[in-house]
């Protein structure tokens, strides 16, 4: 490994699931403290080989300076009465108050009257402790993560077809693919370093075909060999029609289907009716392009890259499964350069899934509905039993706070008052809750005013642990400077509250939370993976230190990490055979109509991250897109009687915001795009002095029945001159 210079620390970028390695540069200040002064790409990290995108390359700017200091939570705060200002308190007082109020509410209303809403930004060690605290100590499965808004349909898609939540591919597959099929993703903006790798692979192999299925002509779509500009939500119609073509033209691999799969006959009957002509009528893609896409897909080797366009949908699980059906039918899986590859949005959504830190999962990819799995974890944790019923998922949690059935919520490292759909309901929910704890590095988020207790947490550059990226690669995250103010590590805060809760809920019993280091937490997590599909029994912090980031599974005695899954075509189902999912096309939850004629979609900008708590303090990251806007087709702007830059009301059935309009060639007539990042801070100046809460004032909380992921990618709106 490249030797480090004095003051340098190896770590991992905290922004997206590509998981790039960084070298953090620090200098000693006059007062003897360490300050982060620079960041460069780690040339030895296999995710990025030294490259960084604009966000990663400015990480140091987000961790220093006056503006940054104004945003950080520096010390614990508390209020007793709503309407009061929170006052500064000691850590002891804060921890005792949180534990006391949670114990009191559990005693009065039962374990399921409290919930924890955590984050894909947390490190695996943080996630593990919170999950154990909820399920093993509080006795509730009411712990969910903002990963529910991001990846849960990808999880369901994998489990429905391949039997386990395990992305089978590696970034290296880009170098061996003949066709890359990108669906509902814009990696040029959202996963830039992976996209650079795709550009390199295309330069090395000019015959490579890139297909992008996306309603918008994004940068990724503009670069594609073939852009399929599908109508929002019609992915399954497209995928089924592609399978129809494969069947019609004899492009399916019958020997693979027979030897390694189940359920093809039923699916074949379903897709028989989805001719390219019918699909074209539904999704708006020319028939010939559907036929071309099917032929290229079947020829391969074909790698699919997909993200929120499939996941954030009321039929997201079915969309994921329908795409994986194409891989199984054409045997584009279990070989180099091929397979269905879900791109992770957040830096550690994968790690959260591994520890089971969600309402519907258990540690080590175990099933919350399986008594045997629950017993196994109860034994490993040293508790009598785990709660049997699935907990409340993200949308359900806020619905339950709003109707009063959930009394208290502990929010960690996330900002639901901006990022959850249907903001007016979420804000009512936070107001109605009896007790709201916010644990975050930032004190200026939209959620902060709702908090009765604010617990200041460390963040990137200050904390130690691990993350797992999209290709199952576990990387170390390392501290380069001391915590800001009185901030403490998330796992440590969870342990400190847990020990106080134990004194009240299970007195005189040995503690379940005797960890002193993140490594001790990680070692316990490792024990829960033994014998599972994600077995990391052969890994240790020491091995990660010596040999760098590694892909799971990595069982004890293994010669090394596992680059690709299913090379033997044995899948993670009980009998080793993959399952075709016989799913049907479902239209979007909220169709456009005469009153709400525009199809609103949401997404990321190139240089911003989520609610901008971190990127919003870095001036140069605004040069790409300096202010909020709604992107529309030029013809729509004209038809609405607006000029470029004029203000317009955007109104859905749930709320309204005002934004300037911007014409964009990426947009088809009838479509509108608003980036997810802009919140209250950037949406000032609303008519009547109103505060606007970002695009999620407009989005719907309708969710997928399997994954429970809400349809953030589509809402019907009307647009009128402001
Ligand atoms: Fe960070 Fe993602 Fe950019 Fe890599 S691609 S530097 S992980 S934001």
UniProtKB/TrEMBL annotation:
One of its GO terms (molecular function) is oxidoreductase activity. Its EC number is 1.7.-.-. It is an enzyme of class 1 (oxidoreductase). Residues 6-67 form the 4Fe-4S Mo/W bis-MGD-type domain. Signal peptide: none annotated. GO terms for cellular component: membrane; oxidoreductase complex. It comes from the Bacteria. GO terms for biological process: cellular respiration; nitrate assimilation. The keyword Kinase does not apply. Keywords: 4Fe-4S, Iron, Iron-sulfur, Metal-binding, Molybdenum, Nitrate assimilation, Oxidoreductase. Its cofactor is [4Fe-4S] cluster; Mo-bis(molybdopterin guanine dinucleotide). Belongs to the prokaryotic molybdopterin-containing oxidoreductase family. NasA/NapA/NarB subfamily. This is Nitrate reductase. The gene is nasA_1. The chain holds residues 2 to 723 of 934 of the full protein.
